[in-house]
Design brief:
Blueprint lengths: L1 H16 L4 H32 L5 H9 L6 H5 L10 E6 L4 H12 L3 E6 L13 E5 L5 H14 L1 E7 L14 H29 L2 E5 L12 H21 L5 E7 L13 E2 L9 H12 L9 E4 L6 E2 L1
Parallel strand pairs: 1-2, 1-4, 2-3, 4-5, 5-6, 6-8
Antiparallel strand pairs: 7-9
Helix pairs in contact: 1-2, 5-9, 6-7, 7-8
Bound molecules: NADP nicotinamide-adenine-dinucleotide phosphate.
The site of NADP nicotinamide-adenine-dinucleotide phosphate has 27 residues, from α5 and β2.
Length: 317
């Protein structure tokens, strides 16, 4: 890769000496950028593998590193001779530490985005070790800290995608919930997406980016034993629809994904979970497919809502 970069640079210099046309200069710069982009992606992967072989950092060390600020890209950028000022396209994904958010983060990484993934507790899995993944250890209820992290991410990268995915679920008869749980439901599932979108919207308009809200089929129906959960999801659906209308003329793609029962940890507080049959639940990767489909549309086309359901409805208690 270095040889190829060197050769392109040499060709570029020769052409410069020969007083080239504007077209030749532009073509050379574009070729250099392509090579350098690939180069940047290769360097950190190698670095991370070496780091891992030399002895993995403990969770506490990694957490400490994250607490002092989001892992910086400066080191990576310095490896490139030419594009020191070029930022990478990036996504912010809340709830990246498990389930759907984890799968969406992996997919966005595979599509070539840097990912700033927010969560409170990350396992040291393959995602953590990817150079393009920046774990942001933050409780979404700490709005001040969250906004500071988001500002830092926006200063370091071209944030062009926001995936509002994080969520909590409390179920049961409504009188069995308590004010703390209700407040958490509202704040994580509805307040946080609205705050993050507000913080990033100017930048997303400049980037002609995307806001993808992971809602739920509960937003579309009546939910006995899940009144509060259904209500906040309906709120998020309403926010998504209105934001689409508000932001569409600025080139921002706003979309809502409505998954049905998906095999994740969401039901850890419930007295039910998905059925045992494979056709009674979705996998997180299948929700990530919907996100990829939304992002794969050409400029000018927005898939603003997608509902994904398993073939049969069955839960087990
Ligand atoms: P999950 O595995 O429990 O994931 C929830 C994520 O949200 C976790 O990464 C969790 O991170 C994060 N989160 C929750 N509270 C947080 C807080 N205070 N601060 C920071 N992060 C927080 O469940 P999931 O099914 O993937 O849920 C993802 C989204 O899909 C949710 O919005 C959910 O409502 C929606 N959804 C799920 C289903 C389903 O059947 N599973 C169906 C429809 C919609 P930490 O644990 O690290 O804090």
């Amino acid at each position: 890769m270095q040889d190829e970069t060197g050769k392109l640079k040499e060709d570029f210099n020769k052409e410069m000496d020969a007083a080239p046309s504007k077209e030749i200069i532009e073509e050379s710069i574009s070729e250099l950028k392509t090579v350098i982009k690939a180069d940047i992606k290769e360097v950190p992967v190698v670095k991370n593998k070496m780091e891992t072989q030399a002895g993995q950092k403990t969770k506490a060390e990694r957490k400490a590193q994250t607490r002092t600020g989001i892992k910086t890209q400066v080191e990576i950028k310095e490896k490139s001779e030419f594009n020191k000022n070029e930022k990478m396209d990036a996504a912010i994904v809340t709830g990246a530490s498990s389930g759907i958010g984890h799968a969406v983060s992996e997919r966005l990484g595979a599509l070539g985005y840097e990912v700033y993934g927010v969560g409170r507790e990350f396992a040291q899995d393959a995602l953590w070790n990817q150079a393009w993944f920046h774990p942001v250890v933050c409780d979404l209820l700490d709005t001040e800290k969250l906004c500071a992290y988001i500002k830092e991410a926006a200063a370091q990268s071209n944030i062009c995608i926001l995936v509002n995915n994080a969520g909590v679920g409390y179920y049961g008869l409504h009188e069995e919930l308590n004010p703390k749980k209700i407040r958490e439901l509202v704040r994580v599932n509805l307040e946080t997406p609205m705050i993050l979108t507000q913080q990033l919207l100017r930048q997303l308009k400049r980037q002609k980016g995307a806001v993808i809200n992971i809602v739920s089929v509960t937003a579309q129906q009546s939910n006995p034993h899940g009144c509060a959960y259904g209500a906040v999801k309906a709120g998020l659906a309403s926010f998504s629809r209105s934001l689409f209308d508000e932001a569409r003329k600025y080139g921002v793609k706003v979309a809502a994904v409505y998954p049905d029962m998906t095999k994740t940890n969401l039901y850890r507080n419930a007295d039910f979970r998905e059925g045992e049959e494979e056709d009674s639940y979705l996998l997180p990767e299948e929700v990530a497919d919907a996100v990829e489909f939304i992002l794969g549309q050409r400029d000018g086309v927005v898939v603003s809502e997608i509902t994904v359901r398993p073939q049969i409805h069955r839960i087990r208690r």
